[in-house]
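Q: Here's a chain of 352 amino acids. Please give me its 3D structure as tokens.
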Amino acid sequence: MYDEKFPDMVELVKAGVENGQFEVTSMTHSEDIISWLPRDEMAREIAGNLNALETTFGVRPKGAYNPEQSWDPFSGKLMLDAGIEWVAISNWQLSEMSYPKIENARDLYTPAYVRTVEDGTIKAVFNSLEPGYWGVSKEFGHGPGVFIWEYLNGSRDSDHIPNALERLQAANADGDMLLLFCQDSEDFWRSPYYGLTTLSQQDMEERFDRLLSLLESLPYIEFVTISEYLERVSPGKTYYVRPSVALFDRDGFGIWERGAFNQAYNLNIQCNRAGEDIRHAELLARIARKKGKDTRRVDSLLEESWQHLGLAKTASGRGYGNTEPFTMWCSDHANTAMKRAREALDEAIDLL
């Protein structure tokens, strides 16, 4: 679609990829609702996006950026299965929603492994959105990523950027820290269109060019793609990061950070899908028995699925606490319940 509607843009991106300036990454078709979906629908969304990007740009992404900082251990495993090697999530998720807790602010700027279901781990890098008290200079205001946004729309100037970056560089003795800015490219037309700034699109683009020139002038800054960075710097620590379906808790959009049910929201979605498949398989097995079919294999799979589903639901009343490793245990049981239920459903269909 993009190569038909915006051929010049597609060719520009292709050229940038070939020159090492750009990296094409997956955002999944459903963007931030990926963590609202059952496992099988997640898999279709991830595969669909990868196929579309490969068709358009001629490269299959190695990484995924989770819009609105959604994250869950199910989609993380499915990304691995689809060939995705790394995921970018918010560094405040690492600081506030991880187990074990991070040891120091440098951990927000270095890669790590994040746990998924089925004892998997995926490489993770962290968007620099965390406020100043977690190591980002307070001169950045709400954080580096937000500061860039405020600079582009004209509500802040760039005078403090060098000093702020030098404070971060002082902690970068090993030269392995990554400062990752993420912003929607649509901001260049969206902000003027909605009256969020008095600047024009051209004004914002010129400010962006000046910002890039400023960053290029600093001797200790190097521009790299994330995949290139991960070739140089290997993840050290491994964390469990509890699920979140979207970023904007401060705006009421719903991070599901508080409250037992809300914290277990993604888990409950997977449990609900397992329950649906169990009931469908039970109905088909009943029809098969009336036709004289041997349903012992289906019955065994259903019994196993019910057992795992019951264990998975033990987290529903307690929620996803960032200091409770047992919640990953519950996620693994939900994952197995879904698999066994789907196997039972397929077996029952084959009997008819």
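Q: Can you summarize the key feature?
A: The mean pLDDT is 81.
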